[in-house]
Each structure stands twice: as C-alpha cells, then as structure tokens.
Write a structure and sequence with these properties.
Layout (H helix, E strand, L loop, with lengths): L14 E5 L6 E3 L6 H13 E8 L5 H12 L3 E5 L2 E7 L11 E2 L4 H12 L5 H6 L6 E6 L10 H9 L3 E4 H4 L1 E8 L6 E3 L5 H11 L6 E4 L7 H8 L3 E5 L2 E5 L3 E2 L2 E3 L4 H10 L7 E8 L6 H8 L3 E10 L2 E9 L7 E2 L11 H8 L4 E5 L12 H11 L3 E5 L2 E6 L3 E2 L2 E3 L4 H11 L2 E2 L1 E5 L11 H8 L5 E3 L1
Helix pairs in contact: 1-2, 1-3, 1-8, 3-7, 5-7, 9-13, 11-13
Length: 461
C-alpha cells in the first residue's frame, strides 16, 4: 500500500523516504513543461512585438526566476495556471532596471540574459526624451550556489562583441555588471558544445552590426534557433554553423512540450522492475536532447516513440519504455551534449546493467549545481554501487544489488531525483535529504512518482 505524509502545499519537501518497488510498474504519466523552452519563450517574448502566449509553462523555481528578471526590465507579464502572457515591447522595449536582477539558482537565466542585455542600448530619441545618456546598465545576481558557477564562457565572447561586463575574478563569477549596446558581430567557435553559450551569443547577435556566426564543435540543443526562426528572425543554420543578423521578432503562441529531462526519471523507473512499462505523452524530442533515449536503446531497453509531430518547429512525441535487462555501454565526449542533464540518472541505471558503463568527456558535470561527478559517485556509493569518479566522467560496474541508505542531494535537483529512482531498486528504505531543490525543475515530482509506483512506501517531511 502507498503511504504518504504530505507537507502543506506552500512548504517545500526537505526529506524524501522511499522503499523498494515490489510489483511491475504500468503507468501513463504527464510531466511538466520543458524547462529550456519555458526560459526562452519568456526571454524572446520580451523583445518580440506583440503578445506572446505561452501554454504549459513550467512553474519551476528556475523559470519563475526568468519571469521575475523580465518583469524587472519593465515587461508586463500575466501568469495564471501555467499560462503566461508576455507583452513584448520590441527589440528596444526593455527598461533599464533600477535594482539588480535576481536569477536565483538558474544558470540558464543568467547566461542567456547576459547575452540579451549585452545588446541593449538606449535609443537616442528615447534617451533625449528621458534626459538619459550612456549605455544600458544592468546587474545580474544569483544565490550562493549560482555565484560559484563559472560565467566566463559567456562573458568572453560577449566582451569580444564589445560589451563591458564586470564580475568577480575578472568576470568569471556573478554578480555580473553589464554595460550593453553598440555591439559588433563576431565569428565565435565554441570551445565546448554548450547550448547556453551558443544562445547567449545568438541573442547578442540580434543587436550587433553585421552577421554573427557561431560554430559548434558538436551539435547541442537548438531550442533558441528554432524559436528565433518561428518568431521571424533572420537566422540560418548550415551544419554546425549558425548565423544571425539583427531583425524584428513577432509574438507567437507557444505550447511548451513536456520536458524530456523530467520524463527520463519516470521512464527509468520502468527499467528497474521486470514486467514494467511507462508511457509519457507529449514530450519534446528535440534532436539535441534525445541522447538519453539513444543510450537506453543501446543498453537494451525497449524504447518507442508514438504520435510524432512538430509544434512551432519543435518535435514532440509520446515516449514508451518497457523493461528489458540492461547491458553496460560507453558514452563518448561527442554524445555528452545530448544527454548532459541525464548523466546522473544514467549512472544510476548502470548499477543495474550487466557489465561496465563508462562516461567520458563530461567534465562539464563538475560545474553544474554541484560537482555532479563527485556527488553522483559519492551518494550512489552509499547505496552500494560500484562506481568510480574520473576527471571527466565515471565508471560503473553492474549489476549491483543496491541497499537503502541515508543520502543527500547536495542541493542538486537532478541528483535528488536520480537517488529517488535508485531507491525503487534498493533493499530497505532510502532517505534522501535536502530535496526542496527538486522544485527547481520538477515541482510535482513526488506526486508523479506516487502516481506510477503502487507498492512502495513514500513519505515526505
């Protein structure tokens, strides 16, 4: 029987206790809207002409931070029941903020907004009318966790374009003070594949003179490019080269598909108990995000896409995963960008796979919300996993019978959810501390987990 002690809705769950799943999981479950697309829809809507309607907006902490930042720039926003209306003022409709723009713990908010704000200036007529002069000044601030994450991958190309950006340790860390406007176009080759850095440069390129070119060493998620094109941007993509010219954006209606990163946790549950099948409808299957599905297929899982279609240029489908015994695989550096957020979950699944699983070329994990290589190895190790942390990834030997233990998320939402799924395969009870961070990306995770698993005890405190 499923036991639950639920915290009041206004309070974040701090501790999650879960015991082993003892019967096959047969379920269809919806997941919340895509985090990456929700961020971008608000930002691009702010500089588009007209009202952008965003349905199925993700009400997670990180996306709500983006809403607050855009409001701080003078943009009118109406938000009710996961639908957002953004009243865009056009390319130069933002107002210089009177106080720092708080990004909370959201790296996407800070990095993408840095690109957008680097291009902001005060049009001369407006400046004269208001008695103002000079560049558009803004400050992006974050919580302690975000202030430890490096920002120089973004500030370096933006400075090359002509923006003045100050921050701690020569702009490596927030808060970031930005003097925007009067940018020049550049050709920038990304040192590593990064959708956030690519997006920041493309957003700045919307305001730069000439053609801004970004070259990727490997494909990364392309939500920014797809949404810019849907809004009428002068943008072209040829292989790993993206070019953008200044243009006016028009408001559109956007239905945000389900987040594949959130769906992955529900799908993984089906791979822990023989006879299980989980279906998640209406999920975004952007080619830059489906690495986890390709990895599961190589590991031997039965993965199927249903009802495939395009929505505002974004591919959407239902995803069905059925249990099959898993085998170990190797993930190379070229594959990492397409599944960077799911690698802690992959490590957990590898504990139940026959043979060795290795992930290489994933040093980027060390500068996420936590050092995800170290914390993933440490916490799964507490549950009995045979996992070795390496400089750029990890090595897991399986299958291993996991044991319930006291573990911690270290304030990382992806790790917290990975440990929760691991608990379904562990003997005894697992207690996961510091789970309030789950609300950063999947506010209804506990409810969704309870909806698909009928036998274990799940309690929240």
């Amino acid at each position: 029987m499923n036991t639950l002690a639920t915290a009041p809705p206004s309070q974040a769950s701090q501790t999650l206790k879960i015991s082993r799943a003892r019967s096959p999981i047969q379920a269809t479950v919806e997941v919340p809207g895509d985090k990456s697309i929700s961020h971008r829809a608000v930002m691009l809507g702010a500089i588009a002409e007209g009202v952008t309607r965003i349905r199925n907006f993700l009400p997670a902490n990180d996306c709500l931070a983006t809403l607050d930042v855009v409001r701080g720039l003078g943009v009118q926003i109406e938000y009710t029941q996961n639908e957002v209306l953004v009243y865009g003022g056009g390319m130069h409709g933002l107002k210089e903020p009177v106080r720092p723009l708080e990004c909370g713990g959201s790296g996407t908010t800070m990095r993408l907004m840095a690109g957008l704000l680097a291009g902001m200036n005060k049009p001369s007529a407006l400046s004269v009318a208001n008695g103002e002069a000079g560049a558009f000044y803004s400050v992006l601030a974050g919580n302690a966790q975000l202030s430890r994450r490096p920002m120089d991958r973004v500030t370096t190309p933006l400075r090359e374009m002509g923006a003045t950006i100050l921050g701690r340790q020569d702009g490596r860390f927030a808060p970031l003070s930005i003097l925007g406007g009067h940018l020049k176009s550049i050709t920038y080759r990304l040192p590593v594949a990064s959708a956030q850095v690519k997006s920041a440069v493309l957003l700045a390129g919307q305001f730069a003179e000439g053609v801004t070119t970004v070259e990727e060493p490997a494909p990364s998620r392309d939500h920014t490019e797809r949404m810019l094109l849907a809004m009428g941007a002068d943008l072209s993509v040829q292989g790993n080269m993206i070019q953008v010219r200044p243009s006016h954006l028009r408001a559109i209606d956007i239905r945000v598909p389900g987040d594949i990163s959130s769906a992955a946790f529900m799908l993984a549950a089906a791979l822990l108990v023989p006879g299980s099948r989980v279906t998640v409808p209406n999920v975004g299957v952007n080619p830059g995000r489906t690495g986890i599905l390709e990895a599961l297929d190589r590991m031997g899982a039965d993965v199927r896409l249903r009802d495939q279609r395009l929505d505002n240029g974004e591919p959407v489908a239902g995803i069905e995963v059925s249990y099959r015994p898993l085998r170990g695989i190797t993930i190379t550096a070229e594959e990492v960008p397409g599944m960077i957020d799911e690698l802690p979950l992959l490590a957990m699944l590898a504990t139940q796979a026959e043979g060795v699983t290795e992930v290489r070329g994933a040093a980027e994990l060390r500068v996420k919300e936590t050092d995800r290589i170290t914390t993933t190895a440490q916490e799964l190790g507490r549950m009995g996993a045979r996992i070795e942390a390496m400089p750029d990834g990890f090595r897991v030997e399986g299958p291993t019978r996991l044991t319930g233990a006291e573990v911690s998320s270290h304030g990382d939402h992806r790790l917290a959810m990975s440990l929760a799924i691991a608990a379904l395969a562990a003997d005894g009870e697992t207690t996961i501390h510091d789970t309030a961070c789950i609300a950063d990306s999947f506010p209804d995770f506990e409810r969704a987990l309870r909806s698909i698993v009928t036998r274990p005890s799940i309690s929240l405190k």
